[in-house]
Design goal:
Organism: Alginatibacterium sediminis
Shape: rod-shaped
Structural class: alpha+beta
CATH class of the largest domain: Alpha Beta
Family: Belongs to the Smp family.
Helix content: 55-70%
Order of helices and strands: HHHEEEEH
Pfam families: SMP_2
Strand content: 5-15%
CATH topology of the largest domain: Beta-Lactamase
GO cellular component, one term: plasma membrane
Strand order of the largest sheet: 2-1-4-3
Number of strands: 4
Number of helices: 4
CATH architecture of the largest domain: 2-Layer Sandwich
Subcellular location: Cell membrane
Length: about 230
């Protein structure tokens, strides 16, 4: 009987260990899935941000480009380029000639794999180009606005936040495991002490019963002895 109980307890412990490992593996997989989903959302949001910035800036450039106001165009370009995630900005006319560019402007050949280049130049790595048309009120094309967005910088900032949140989730899960272990340990000790107390109570009752029986037997023996005496 004791062997069966020990064997059952052993299999129970093995099952609990396997269940805990399976839960840990599932939690890790969920964390990785969540991270991939968040990174995809971040990339999509960066894309929307870049296109929105280029489109809104192009709308503000219409009058200045129509009047060929170099001072106003330069001021607007500097405002656009003041954003920390904008590397450079350039305004082109309708035939592709540069009208105004920011101070840190680099040629397009240094940013993209064009003119037979086998790979993207080093200066273009981690950066993305976005172009928006500058149109007149009647819809005619007046020129283009090109901005270079530091996509790797934005992704790095988002990744840092994701890593921080993921570490917090790991910490929360770890604390939950510790709390669960302590509660289980406390309840197990409570049951053990309760079992010991019940055994001691049974032993005490058994001892008292034995003492009572012995006392009765002794009294009966004394009574028989007294009756046999002349």
């Amino acid at each position: 009987m004791a062997t069966k109980l020990r064997r059952g307890y052993f299999f129970k412990q093995i099952f609990q260990l396997l269940l805990a490992l399976a839960c840990a593996a599932a939690a890790t997989a969920l964390f990785n899935t969540l991270r991939n989903d968040v990174e995809s959302i971040v990339a999509h949001q960066i894309e929307l941000l870049s296109r929105s910035v280029s489109s809104m800036a192009a709308l503000n450039l219409e009058n200045a480009l129509k009047e060929d106001n170099q001072e106003q165009l330069t001021s607007l370009i500097n405002v656009i380029n003041s954003e920390y995630y904008i590397f450079d900005a350039t305004i082109y006319n309708a035939i592709g000639e540069v009208v105004v560019s920011s101070d840190l402007n680099l040629p397009l050949e240094d940013m993209l794999a064009i003119e037979g280049a086998a790979q993207t130049p080093i200066t273009g790595l981690g950066r993305s180009q976005y172009v928006a048309e500058i149109r007149e009120d009647n819809g005619d094309n007046m020129g283009f606005l090109r901005i270079t967005v530091e996509t790797q910088l934005l992704e790095s900032e988002a990744t840092a936040l994701i890593d921080r949140d993921q570490q917090l989730l790991y910490l929360i899960v770890g604390l939950a495991v510790i709390v669960g272990f302590l509660l289980t340990r406390t309840l197990s000790l409570k049951r053990r002490w309760g079992s010991i107390s019940r055994q001691e109570a049974k032993q005490t009752q058994s001892g008292q019963a034995s003492q009572f029986v012995n006392a009765l037997a002794s009294r009966s023996k004394n009574t028989d002895t007294n009756e046999e005496a002349p």
